[in-house]
Specification:
- The complex is a heterotetramer, with two copies of chain A (356 residues), one copy of chain C (580 residues) and one copy of chain D (322 residues).
- Chain A has helices spanning 40-48, 94-104, 113-126, 142-154, 172-189, 200-206, 224-229, 234-239, 272-276, 349-354; strands spanning 2-11, 14-24, 29-33, 55-60, 63-66, 79-82, 160-164, 192-197, 209-214, 217-222, 244-251, 254-257, 265-266, 279-282, 287-291, 297-306, 310-317, 320-327, 338-343.
- Chain A has 356 residues and is an alpha+beta fold.
- Chain A has a six-stranded mixed sheet, sandwiched between helices. Chain A has a five-stranded antiparallel sheet with strand order 15-19-16-17-18, with no helix packed on it.
- In chain A, a hairpin with a 2-residue loop joins strand 4 (55-60) and strand 5 (63-66).
- The longest helix of chain A is centred in the middle third of the chain and has 18 residues, at 172-189.
- Chain C contains 26 helices and two strands.
- Chain C has helices at residues 9-14, 16-24, 26-50, 61-68, 70-103, 109-121, 124-135, 140-147, 160-184, 188-196, 201-212, 214-230, 233-239, 247-255, 262-288, 309-339, 355-363, 366-398, 402-416, 419-431, 445-468, 473-481, 486-515, 518-523, 531-540, 544-575; strands at 53-54, 57-58.
- In chain C, helix 5 runs parallel beside helix 9 (160-184).
- The longest helix of chain C is centred in the first third of the chain and has 34 residues, at 70-103.
- Chain D has 322 residues and is α/β, with parallel strands linked by helices.
- Chain D has ten helices and 13 strands.
- In chain D, helix 3 (82-90) packs across helix 10.
- Chain D is globular.
- The complex binds adenosine-5'-triphosphate (2 copies) and magnesium ion (2 copies).
- Residues 40-41, 84, 164 of chain B line the site of one magnesium ion (MG).
Amino acid sequence: MIKVNHVSKKYGSFTALHAIDLEIGDGEFIAVLGPSGCGKTTLLKLLAGFMGPTDGTISMDDTVLASTKHVLPPEKRNIGMVFQSFALWPHMTVAEHVKFPLSYHPNKVKEGRKELQARIDKVLKLVGLDALAERYPSELSGGQKQRVALARAIAPLPNLLLMDEPLSALDVELRMEMRKEIQKLHRETKASIVFVTHDQGEALAIADKIVVMNQGRIEQIAPPEVLYTRPETEFVATFVGKCNLVKGQWRGDQFVPTIDSDNVWHDLGVADSFKTSGIYPVRPEQFQLMAADSKGMQGVVSFVQYQGHEIQYTVEVGEATWTIHESVVATRFETGDVVGISLKNAPKQTGTIVSN
Amino acid sequence: MIKVNHVSKKYGSFTALHAIDLEIGDGEFIAVLGPSGCGKTTLLKLLAGFMGPTDGTISMDDTVLASTKHVLPPEKRNIGMVFQSFALWPHMTVAEHVKFPLSYHPNKVKEGRKELQARIDKVLKLVGLDALAERYPSELSGGQKQRVALARAIAPLPNLLLMDEPLSALDVELRMEMRKEIQKLHRETKASIVFVTHDQGEALAIADKIVVMNQGRIEQIAPPEVLYTRPETEFVATFVGKCNLVKGQWRGDQFVPTIDSDNVWHDLGVADSFKTSGIYPVRPEQFQLMAADSKGMQGVVSFVQYQGHEIQYTVEVGEATWTIHESVVATRFETGDVVGISLKNAPKQTGTIVSN
Amino acid sequence: MTAKQPIDGERKKRDSSFSLFFQRNNLYKIIGLIVIFIFFLLPVLRLIWLSFVNDGSVTMQYYTEVLREPATWKTVKNTLIVVGGSTILALVLGILFSWLVAYVQLSGKRAMQLFIFLPFVIPSYITTLAWTQFFSASGPVTAMLSWLPGELAAPNLYSMSGIILLLGISHYPLVYLFTVNVFRKIPRELEEAAATSGLSKQRTFWKVVLPLALPGIASGGLIAFLSNLDNFGIPAFLGTPANIRVLSTYIYEQVVGFGPSAFSRAAVLSVILGLIALLGTVLQWFLLRRSRVNETNRSDSTPRIYLTAGKQKLVEALLWIFLLVTSLMPLITMGALSLISAYGVPFKLENLSLRNYEYVFMTDVKPMSALSNSLQLALFTMIVCLVLGTAMAYLRFKYPDWSTKTAELFMTIPYALPGTVFALCMIFMWLEPVPGWNPNIYGTVWILFIAYVTRFLVLQVRGSYTAFLQIDPSMEEAARTSGAAGWVKWRRILLPLLFPGILSGALLVFLMALTELTVSSLLWSSGSETVGVVIFGYEQAGYSTYSTAFSTVLVLGILLGGALFMLLGKLWDRKVLKNK
Amino acid sequence: GSEESGTDSKAGIAGEGVSGTLDFYTSQPDADAQGLVDAFKAQNPDVNVSIFRSGTEEVVSKIQAENQGGNIQADVLLVADSVTFESFKADDLLLNYKSPETESLDQSFVDPDGTYAGTKIMATGLIVNTNDVTELPTSWTDLTDEPTSGQAVMPSPLYSGAAAYNLGVMTRQDSLGWEFYEALQDNDITITQGNGAVLESVATGEKKYGMIVDFLAARAKNDGSPVELVYPEEGVPVITEPVGILANTENEEASKAFVDFILSEEGQKLASQQGYTPIREGIDAPEGLKTLDEMTILDAEAVELLETRSDDKTKFGKIFGQ
Ligand SMILES: Nc1ncnc2c1ncn2[C@@H]1O[C@H](COP(=O)(O)OP(=O)(O)OP(=O)(O)O)[C@@H](O)[C@H]1O
Ligand SMILES: Nc1ncnc2c1ncn2[C@@H]1O[C@H](COP(=O)(O)OP(=O)(O)OP(=O)(O)O)[C@@H](O)[C@H]1O
Ligand SMILES: [Mg+2]
Ligand SMILES: [Mg+2]
């Protein structure tokens, strides 16, 4: 169990992390999610031990790993790390990158050459680089480089695996595959994993627990479904799966949107914090678009994005801009169209799932 | 109009591009999509003029830009480029990065200091880096670096904008925003844009035309909807929006899946190439899962991924592995469950849209 | 990707974990500094102390005296002009050559590199002799100019500009050596990014390439600056006839000036010289202030600029002409002198013989043993400097705080002082490090060894530091998360990445130690004579023909070694790195 | 080494039975110093002599530095000129030892207090390039005449102790004096670093005339250089390469034996063989050089020279614009 205790980190006068508290259980898979520049990489580097916190401590099973005074160096920890910038060694081939931790990591292969080579081959195959084993980093494409970084980190099966956007340069297919491999690894080795990503879908799909960060602070820590269905802050609601924050008035379980005061919406599982601030968070797929008629909410389509299995509309409704996803089989609208908007009645969704 | 004419590129003995043909119309927005290592970056570098083709020519309005003999250097072309690895200058601040092309690019700002500063501010604001103008690259996070690279490329409003995964390090929200800005820029400047991405959603959303590459070859060039609904090769079908290639027999417009020969599926717009190879491509959302009963297709859930607005199931059906997306409101299954699978009847979908 | 680190202040903050280690071990820091102080600064302080005492009482008398003399100020002014001018010349030539070799497609680069080193290894008395003959009334330049219309006279080398020219030419290889690897490591994409931003090749050079090469340029420039400052041979040879004094020659005059105050006055002047050296170092820090780390690249020796065949030929021709004049001409002069029996006999076949070689290598026993001594000394000095210098550079790179900066300053001083002065300092220090205790270092070969290490360590520090500036810290971080610490990390990750830079430093130390003269001439002892001492001895005895014979063999040996080395490098490239 | 006795060496063959180590600091050319030591060792095989050889200036600086450092390592010192010894003598660094062999020397080359004695005669004369000059000069003042304008070269007293000695001596001659040096300056004489540079310059024809120590010129001529040595008629300043023993020598006995040997007939013959004019009367000078009686010697008080050396140099510097 790793405990991050009130850790702050400053770069010069800029505070990148504000008194972070976090617990990483043994064998837990934690995704760290947050917008660009929110401090994800910084958190990871602190966990790895590349630098010490400006304040606070990081401890593991009651021994202090890092404090302002002392930092246990990374080589003495049983970790693996995928660097956001890959950090490949220009003088080593792909195979050598994998061989390196297998020879020096605390979990190194001790059984001899053949075993070592077998492990190298296995890991390379796993990331799909077996054909490129003798290439140097300068001869690889972006995604290939990232896979080398991934292979190097996972090869020694570290106890704590820190991954800084390890799949950002991969295509969806490969990414799914890698995700599955990582999950398999996780199941098999029971390693704790901290997985930084900016992709909320990835975080939702992969983690036991998601940490949402914003501007150097933790906004919410929760399992994926709780996070998605019961976001506690506006930020989490909008960031994790697009959410439209509809303003209005809460009267008990009933919500009257400002924009369309004739209507009453029912509470489908909205967090209390939203109720006090008079907001109803609506997911893009919870809205329904139709041809405009005189009554009900009206908006103007300002942007249309085709997504294959769905169409994403950006609609201006009064002062607000809403995102609405519609199936490709529904009626199509174009930029400039005036549309009517209503809330789908899907009483089952949030309520039941939270209680799952 | 830029014409890529039978261009090949070899790195040593490895052929990264095999006789590529491509046309980029004036003001066209082209997305290049393909798996890791397929040659996207290589194509872009050829278009920029960093290297010459091993074979073939690239010409623009009938003047040859690049051949095996001669390459017009990039600084003489009116281009902008976002590098996959950012390629930021470590000795320059964020503002200087933007100032540079504004001072030297063929489209440079000629009006004087004030105008220049205004343009810098505007571009930085656009990518959300106005607060970090005086930072050096080493003081930025991954996503911030990428935005600097983006800002630098778009600042001079080049005629041809080459973008190599320009948004890969950004979170969904920011990515959407940037996408919109790029599209706006495209509309306003009528620049030709070649946008490399590994993200099919992005490609579908943003481009006039998508080029799908695989292993150094172009698989298909088509507008997004055509590509999604009428993929011409297995590769395109599976790569652009997950697709399950169900094997069976085509009898005219009727398809009998091998796995469930009691059933007959109707042609909802399948390309001829699939018909000849006896395949019915089914999108994950076209399948429906239900509790297993004795008749119909059956499979075993091998993997479940929660995605917020949907659940992604991996199901083993006979020899094949299918991906099926179900709404979160539908019945939930778990790994190991035996499920029944049927094809949703949605006759409208593909047919009508293709004729759009 | 550009890497995480600014070079100075910010790194410290970011790497606070390491300074944290250090805080706990603040003691080590102090101890380290004390050791460095004892080895590098204390000897000099013992000299400086002389400038404050007169008959056992502390006085500022020497300062008021020396500083009041107009001669002092004139000398300082001359020094600044000469050193400034020659450093600029060395920088221009050094940067130009390193850029051409690293960037432009030229044939015969390896041979070129060898020739670039020549002016640096040819003893400066030979260089001056060759150049003065070249420009003399009976020399080829005058002859050539007489063919041209107009009253053109060959430039007078016995002048400020002559000194600047020769110093510049002798020391540009230093800049070259430090810079060429840095150029090779600049990621191509950074230039490509400039090109897409519309910068022409030329602008890209000024705005992107040059700033990125700053670590090398600053180090090379600093070393060239210090070398120009402490050089005695060239200003003495060319300046004496022209009545031009610079600090190094003036200090020598004081030292040999007998009189009770000789050393004291020399010490005062040395302080002035030391201040100028420190000024140079600080200026160099200032230059490096804005330098940032690149993405770590493998050094890339494939050319980036291709010229048309005609232009390439032209550039090659110009380069070779320059190299022939600056490198081959002195070499040939030297070779020719070594073949004749005496100065002034016409260079005709019947006057040529190998008699001088025979004497040097068959009759006289000293040269061979000197060669062996020097080789051993140079080798050990190189190895020790390699280890200590690289370690120091690492500390300097990792913890750029007051302590490492101070340490670097300490190490700069011994190199900046004129050799004679430095040798005197070594005597003060090591004869009896503690009054009454003679550890028997002085008077043995050990004093030479200590002197060489002390004097040349800064070369390795700069060489290695420059190499470190090319390494993105994430390289090391990745090694550490892979479990590699200590020696493994160095052997497998850092050293291979640092290799070319470290090698440049080591090469410099080796060559400097091999040909060292002024320090050795005061510190050698029976049985530990060095190459420099033997050559100096021949020179002083008026046997210039012998000394040229010996020098010729030495230089040819170095050339041969260099050629072998490059051949090995080529093989290494082919076989091990499978470079295309 | 044994230090108990300072008198017994007067008796019998010099230094018979001496042993131990001896540090010999000299500015003689390496081969000559080695030859000397070898000859000495042939007689005294138990003495281990280690040589430190460098330029006079370096040797002197080294001894001074050692003195500052607390302990002079040298036992016997042999460098260019008597002024140097006067300076050490003034600092009480030299041992009083009047070698019995000095009786055969012209007493003007022997320190009356016995701290040092000359070992050979090195005159400074004129060197001429015979390719360019047919009419040999006869006088120092030829260097100040119109025909030699810009053609002459001399070593700098600021670098070379021997040249500084010459400066002191010549400026004290009525026939020459400071006016001579001023005239040299007016006649555009070139100042160069040392005697070696003068030789190079004249032998290669870069300059036609030079002031130079005689043996260098004679040897170059012997080797075939197109040069001629001239002893000007006014006389020549002479340096004597004196030898002395350092006061804190650790092997007084061997040191004395060594000094005795240098001044002995055998030692002097060796000097002659090595190409120097011996100082001991009755031994022939080598080919091309004059013996002591054949030259007119310009002389000055060494003590006085020491006192004024610094001023002399400054004055010289002023004249030559430094
Ligand atoms: N210098 C090189 N030497 C040898 N092979 C290379 C070199 N550069 C690229 N390649 C290979 O060429 C192929 C295409 O590379 P490219 O960089 O164009 O891929 P990409 O499509 O951009 O991939 P990614 O999405 O991973 O960035 C890859 O398989 C890569 O390994
Ligand atoms: N060396 C530095 N000096 C100053 N500020 C820094 C430095 N490194 C990072 N920062 C700032 O700290 C903040 C957090 O950076 P961090 O790299 O942790 O972000 P991140 O969450 O990983 O973002 P991304 O998703 O873009 O990689 C950013 O705003 C960044 O600008
Ligand atoms: Mg990051
Ligand atoms: Mg790529």
